[in-house]
Amino acid sequence: MRGYRSGLLVGLLLAMATGVAADNHEQGEAAMPEMGPPSEMEHVKWMVGDWDAKMQYRMAPDSAWIESDAKSTTMLDVGGAILRTTYTGTMMGMDMVGMGTLFYDREMKHWVSTWIDNMSARQSVYTGGPREDGVIELAGEDMYQGVTYPVKMEVTKTSDDAYTWQMFMTVDGENWFPSMAIEYTRTK
Fold this sequence. Notes:
Layout: H1 2-27, E1 49-57, E2 66-77, E3 82-91, E4 94-105, E5 110-117, E6 123-130, E7 136-144, E8 147-159, E9 162-170, E10 176-186
Antiparallel strand pairs: 1-2, 1-10, 2-3, 3-4, 4-5, 5-6, 6-7, 7-8, 8-9, 9-10
């Protein structure tokens, strides 16, 4: 009896799998979602390369800017589906190592950027996309010493060999100020 039930179960599972396969075959290519790197990634390939970075940052609108130098490398990764950036420099007198990604999420229909570094040891996520002027604008939340605050970022291509990255933050949700700016120049 046990062998009969096992055989019946296997037969039933095969029949179901055959029906699903037949349905998928009848639907043809239309049933297959777009695969591979999103075509939108073509718009940011110019960021691939090695970069010298001049960073300045501050934590309040009335604070003096603090400057530092860094190196950055950006490459296509995950079969061309994302840009992955590594960043090495100093911040607040300490070595800073960070990694970010930028990719187009075809399901959500917007750009996503992530960032993690050795100073915060947490991952930040930002979403957005290009404006009509070509500037990539992203927004999200960051956290510092347990306090969450909204941030905005802008990436502006200034030439084939240079771009700027700016972060803006607010402490009251209305008045935004530039808190960080990085001038990237392609390493020669």
